[in-house]
Structure formats: structure tokens, C-alpha cells
Design goal:
Layout lengths: L2 E6 L1 H4 L10 H13 L4 E7 L11 E2 L2 H5 L10 E7 L18 E6 L4 H13 L3 E6 L7 H14 L3 E5 L7 H14 L5 E5 L7 H10 L5 E6 L13 H12 L6 H17 L6 H8 L4 H10 L4 H10 L10 H12 L9 H8 L3 E5 L4 H4 L1 H8 L4 E6 L10 E4 L2 H6 L8 E4 L9 E3 L15 H11 L4 E5 L23 H18 L4 E4 L11
Parallel strand pairs: 1-2, 1-9, 2-3, 2-4, 4-5, 5-6, 6-7, 7-8, 8-9, 10-11, 10-15, 11-12, 12-13, 13-14, 15-16
Helix pairs in contact: 2-9, 4-5, 5-6, 6-7, 10-11, 10-12, 18-19
Length: 527
């Protein structure tokens, strides 16, 4: 077994799951727990000029801030922090005096390679251990990677990393890159490996690396509970247990279990991380995982749709997340010109100056069903359910903008369905243009209920009564009356959607009378 050292990056990479807001006391408990667990290298977080000082987060504005979370007794462990290239005034870097972090990990994209390596040289001159993290190793050709290694040899950093930024590296990729490094990197430089778990290969790849034939010191990154953006990272607790059993190591599991139990589990419950099909799709396309998270948060796409959108992406846009770009692709994909408007005039006459009851699938559609049925009995009320058929006895129409929901609908009910043009539909009552029903509030711009209200405004409806449009909870069981419709929504995404729905409904009120028939749980339009 090789000379393997574990670097835990919970406080840095794990921070993508909670905006680095672990809490000041929890940060100290985690670093102390990692020391107690005998972890070799502990990453405290980022050092950056892009935030204001906040003791509750692990994005530090100075080296003094980072020093404040390091235990007085370091027990011989190495403490490091990461600096993303361009996010810190490197000329203001203090000389290393042992009072703060021992080393700095420099992360950079290929486009910034030359300037970032100059950074590394300056950091080394200040006395710090330098860990070179050239992100997305698979984005380099063999020739480019060898050239990078030669540049690293001139700098002589503490460690050079193979980085699987998108979690798509197979065993053959890892061993190919490793032996390129092994045979060309100066002997004294340690080799590191940082992985993500998009394809569930982080654990097996780490094991693979422990079996390669080398006399070098190796560093393998991990995080407690695998905490990390999207699919997360290699699990510290799994890997150190493997090393204890197979390499005669003496890592302690109890402190890691305490960190999971007392600190990390609440974050996990609020904002799940781990393997998912969207993250697999992003890895398959060698793309930044935030693209997958963005598309998944829409809750309007099938996995096939997501894959099709990734197919539309330019290769040079895949490495860095560009929110405007992915939103443009999403809308382009949805804006298909499929319309069936033969019944548009008939529908317009049916709702013109009428009261329209729209029924969304939230919990209140069941808990306050009597109120809904009483309203639907009124002969001047037109009833439209959203993305499902609420009750075929009272529902006049079904509005669908979500392909998943359309596919779930019984084919016999499509004759009274109004669908948007992004759905490949046949034999429906009406198909309207998706683009024309969008609003300008990004988190809910194609929310089905809001799209329907926009259609009703355009058709001259007299008023709208809303039932079952409760808003979103991060607890999936709280969102839908029919549990088969449950979709997980992250806490911050849910909050943005709720605020967006309220804002758009208030704006719509300027054009049509809107009343909440049932009690919305998370959307307030009267406050």
C-alpha cells in the first residue's frame, strides 16, 4: 500500500451545500474533530476578497480569520485553505509565520494557467506549502498536460493535483493521468487527487490510486458524509475506514460520526447532496455540475430533455457555469412552435368575463375540498386544473406545461387538455405558445399556474379564484396532495420560487381580480 494521506475538504467543498454557513462554533468543532480523527491535512475553507467578514462562514477575508478556526493544538496536522485564482490580492499575502494556515491550494482554469502559476511561485516565496489544483484535468490534451507538468517542475510546489472536477473520470482515465504525472513530475512533489461523485466512482477511484506502484506521497481528498456540491465528494468516513483495514492506518471514526450526527445531518436534510441523475448527465457531458442543478430546479424537464439540452451546449461553455447561457438554452429548447389553436376562439368565449377557478395540486386542494367543490358548482364558473385532473366531475379543462405531467395523464383526458407548445402533444383541445405565457421573474417564469393566469388575462376572463397553489416547501411531502407528484425542492430554491410567485401574482392583480380560495401555505399575496 502506498504512502497515502487524507485531506478533508468538508469546510471548503462542503460549503457549496450551505453557502459555507456552518456557524462559528460548528467550524471549530469540525476542525477539532478532524484533528481527533487523525486526518492528515485539514482544509479550513476559502480565502477570498469577494466576501465581507462573517465568523459563521468558511469564506475568510484574511489569514487571521482562517487562523481563528485552527485548534491551538494542531497535533502535527497540516492546515490549508484554498484561493481561487483572481479572488485575492496575492501581493497582500502575509509572510508565513506559523500562526495561520500552513499551505495554500491554488485552483484555476486552463485559460488562467500562466498567471496562476506565477501566483504559485509568489505564494511559495512567502513560505507557504503550495498545492497546485489545475481544475478539470480531463480538459487538457496529453501534450498540454505534459507541458503543465514541466511548468510545475520549475516551481517545485508541495503537491500537484489530478482534479476530477466534474466527476466523470473512469479508472482508465485516472491511471493514464497518474502515470503521466508519475513519470514526469519531480520526485519530491506529492501527487494529489480530488474527485467528485457524479458517476459514483470517487470511492473506487480512490481505492485504485492506493494500489498503483509508486514511492511517492499521495494525497486523496474527501469530505465528511461526502458533503459537496451536487453529487458530492469521496466520503471521508468510508475512505479512512478502508485505509484502516487495508493499509494499517489509525484514523478514528468516532469523531467523524459525531460531526455527521451533530453538525452535518441537519444541513443534509435541508439541502440534499449525493448521486442523482441530473449530476450523472452533467458528468456524462463533461460539464459543470451547476448546469444540472439549474435545469433540475426547473422541475419541468424529463431526464431525456435535460440530456437534449446538454447536447445543445458548446464545448467551450461547459467548463464554467454561465447562468445566462443555460437559461437561454432552456428557453430555446422549450420554445417549440407546436400549436393547435382551432379551439382558441371557443375557449376565449368560454372564459370571457367569467369567474375561472384554477386548481393546483397542493395539499390545500384536499384539505379544503368542500370549499373548492362549492365554488365549482356555480354555473358561471369555469374550472381548470393544473398539470393533473383534479376531479373529472367538476373540471372543465386541464392545463399542462410540464411534459412529465402530460405523460402521466390518461390519454382519454387529453381531449379537454390545454397544453403549451413545448409538449409534443396530439389530440388535445388546445395547444398554445409557450413563449407568450412566460413572465420575467426567473425562478417562476414558466410556472404552470402563472402561465395559465397569463392565458386567462389574454382571453379576457373576469376573475380568477386560486385553489391548491400553496407554494413550495423543501420537504417534498408537504408540497402535493398526491404523493406520486412529489419532487424535491432545495430550501433556497423553494424560498425564491415562493417569493417569485407572490410577486408575479401581485403584478397580475393589476390586470385581473385574483382571490385565494384556499389558504396558501407559503405564498403571500396580501401582505
Amino acid at each position: 500500500m502506498n504512502k497515502v494521506h487524507v485531506l478533508d475538504c468538508t469546510l471548503r467543498d462542503g460549503g457549496y451545500c450551505n453557502e459555507w454557513r456552518f456557524g462559528s462554533q460548528n467550524i471549530k468543532k469540525i476542525t477539532a474533530g478532524l484533528v481527533e480523527a487523525n486526518i492528515d491535512i485539514i482544509e479550513c475553507g476559502f480565502i477570498t476578497n469577494k466576501v465581507s467578514r462573517d465568523p459563521d462562514i468558511t469564506r475568510f477575508t484574511s489569514f487571521d480569520d482562517a487562523a481563528a478556526v485552527i485548534p491551538a493544538d494542531r497535533s502535527g496536522k497540516i492546515f490549508v485553505a484554498m484561493i481561487n485564482y483572481g479572488e485575492f490580492d496575492i501581493d497582500a499575502l502575509p509572510e508565513h509565520d506559523g500562526s495561520s494556515v500552513d499551505g495554500i491550494r491554488v485552483a484555476f482554469h486552463k485559460r488562467d494557467l500562466s498567471a496562476a502559476l506565477e501566483w504559485c511561485e509568489k505564494i511559495k516565496q512567502k513560505g507557504y506549502l503550495v498545492f497546485v489544483q489545475a481544475m478539470v484535468s480531463l480538459s487538457y490534451t496529453d501534450e498540454e498536460f505534459l507541458s503543465l507538468i514541466n511548468s510545475i517542475n520549475r516551481i517545485e510546489p508541495y503537491a500537484f493535483y489530478i482534479v476530477d472536477s466534474f466527476g466523470r473520470m473512469k479508472s482508465k482515465d485516472l491511471t493514464r493521468l497518474f502515470y503521466m504525472v508519475e513519470h514526469n513530475l519531480n520526485d519530491d512533489i506529492w501527487i494529489g487527487f480530488h474527485s467528485h461523485n457524479n458517476m459514483q466512482l470517487a470511492y473506487s477511484n480512490a481505492q485504485e490510486l492506493t494500489t498503483v506502484q509508486t514511492n511517492r506521497n499521495l494525497i486523496i481528498d474527501s469530505s465528511v458524509m461526502g458533503m459537496g456540491r451536487g453529487a458530492g465528494n469521496l466520503n471521508t468516513e468510508l475512505f479512512v475506514d478502508y485505509l484502516n483495514e487495508n493499509a494499517g492506518k489509525d484514523y478514528r471514526l468516532s469523531p467523524l460520526l459525531n460531526i455527521m450526527d451533530n453538525i452535518l445531518t441537519p444541513f443534509y436534510n435541508k439541502n440534499y447532496w449525493g448521486y442523482s441523475l441530473p449530476n450523472y448527465i452533467s458528468a456524462m457531458h463533461n460539464s459543470h455540475p451547476n448546469y444540472a442543478g439549474y435545469l433540475d430546479a426547473k422541475k419541468t424537464l424529463t431526464y431525456e430533455d435535460m440530456n437534449n439540452i446538454f447536447d445543445m451546449m458548446d464545448d467551450d461553455k461547459k467548463v464554467s457555469f454561465d447562468k445566462g447561457y443555460i437559461e437561454e438554452l432552456y428557453l430555446k429548447y422549450q420554445e417549440k412552435d407546436r400549436v393547435q389553436e382551432a379551439h382558441l376562439h371557443e375557449f376565449t368565449q368560454a372564459v370571457k368575463e367569467k369567474r375561472v377557478l384554477i386548481i393546483a395540486p397542493g395539499l390545500s386542494s384536499v384539505t379544503e375540498k368542500d370549499r373548492i367543490l362549492d365554488c365549482a358548482k356555480d354555473k358561471n364558473t369555469v374550472t381548470i386544473s393544473i398539470n393533473y385532473d383534479y376531479d373529472e366531475q367538476v373540471t372543465d379543462f386541464i392545463f399542462l406545461s410540464n411534459l412529465r405531467r402530460y405523460r402521466d395523464l390518461e390519454s382519454v383526458k387529453r381531449a379537454k387538455s390545454i397544453v403549451t407548445s413545448n409538449i409534443p402533444a396530439v389530440d388535445v383541445y388546445l395547444q398554445v405558445r409557450y413563449k407568450e405565457l412566460l413572465n420575467s421573474t426567473e425562478p417562476v417564469q414558466d410556472n404552470a399556474g402563472l402561465m395559465l393566469i397569463k392565458l386567462l388575462i389574454d382571453c379576457g376572463a373576469g376573475s380568477v379564484y386560486i385553489a391548491g397553489m400553496d407554494g413550495y416547501s423543501p420537504n417534498a411531502d408537504d408540497n402535493y396532495a398526491d404523493k406520486k407528484m412529489n419532487l424535491y425542492t432545495q430550501g433556497d430554491v423553494a424560498e425564491k420560487k415562493n417569493a417569485g410567485m407572490a410577486a408575479v401574482l401581485k403584478e397580475f392583480r393589476k390586470h385581473i381580480d385574483i382571490k385565494m380560495l384556499t389558504t396558501p401555505r407559503y405564498v403571500d399575496i396580501d401582505g
